[in-house]
User: Fold this.
Amino acid sequence: MTTYQEELLPGTRRALLHRIAVAQAEGRAPSLVAAVVRDGRAVWHGARSAVDGHAPDENVQYRIGSITKTFTAVLVLRLRDEGVLDLGDPLEKYLPGTGAGEATIAELLAHTGGLAAETPGPWWERTPGSLRPGLDDVLGERPLLHPVGRRHHYSNPGYTLLGALVEELRGAPWEEVLEREVLRPLGLERTGVRPQAPSAGGWAVHPWADALLPEPVEDLGRMAPAGQLWSTTADLARFAVFLAQGDDRVLSAESVCEMRTPAAPAEAADVVDGATYGLGMQIQNRGGRLIVGHSGSLPGFLANLSISVEDDVAAVVLANCTSGPLLSAVAADLLRIVAEAEPRIPAPWRPLPEVDAAVLELTGPWYWGTQAFVLRMTADGLISLGPVSGAGRRARFRAETDGTWTGLEGYYAGERLRVVRRPDGSVSHLDLGSFVFTRQPYEQGAEVPGGVDPEGWRGIAY
Assistant:
């Protein structure tokens, strides 16, 4: 287990407070509240407010907008894990006649289903959901703007379809399923589809004057799975722990890791920005730090939840203004401040409880042609294979019951590694997706494709 002192250092806490104070002042937010999570629990809460003596605490609700999508994605992944659906299934299999049924469930989760970004008709975030009672009102006459699966195009209607899918397969309203299967098990008692006191009011701030205008609070109706929820920094801190570690009552660690894995082709601008999308989660690279989570906005509110799994730190930032501080940047800075000031302390090295002699035999150097690789046993029961030095293809592999190993990442993800033995049972070579790895570079007598010159290695006479 990683060991930290109980609380953040005073200097770290002051740096965090300074960052949100600058964000609230320069972004002209009526209020801004934030939390930092480390080692599975909230270790810091901070707030700034335009009203002296009324800074919100961690239990004040704000609208969280599109962070709702991550909750909806969790419900869909639960259906997958139960075997009710497959992510490769077309939507048409479960919701026929939408006009968008060609898109698969995975493509809808990753915003690659080709759907429009918004609904037809008036701005859905500022008008009653009763104006869009059916899916046809959400999708319009031309649901698809792009070829299915070809590009990442963020789509709010796509998550309305996923919410409708949950309702169809569970036989209950989306909000009831969410309460029963996610909110209650995770103890998110201050998260829900409607505000409960204490909650912040939503404001628009005049762009050229320090003046306020109240924003309407609308029930989004059919669009609820895309952005309806209200929550608090305390609840979202707990949700961040779940998204980093999993919880078998809701989703396994393996499934939440899948949510955090890129699933969408990046646009050219996204490549420059180092951003992509998983299954209900945004993924970005900021200053060499991989950050996953989601942002959210609705008229009167901004929200961001960001997690650095490698640093074991998460941040939540909420504000009650339509536009103003860039919360994704604020959250990324909170992560950086903690990670740099108080870096994660690694768990102590410990030897394996037991050693499999057959696997131990495989460890050490191997050669793909002339390139040197090394195979290692890892403490988690896997093996790793990668170049002895420098860049190159590397991956971890999981053992299968038939004696082969399956690649878990990178170039070798899903590829099979097979141990080839001689008639006497000794190891001849490794076969990895047709690539042959031998104990010596171009080893004589090994099954190297194309053969090995029988005269062996030689010099050149001058």
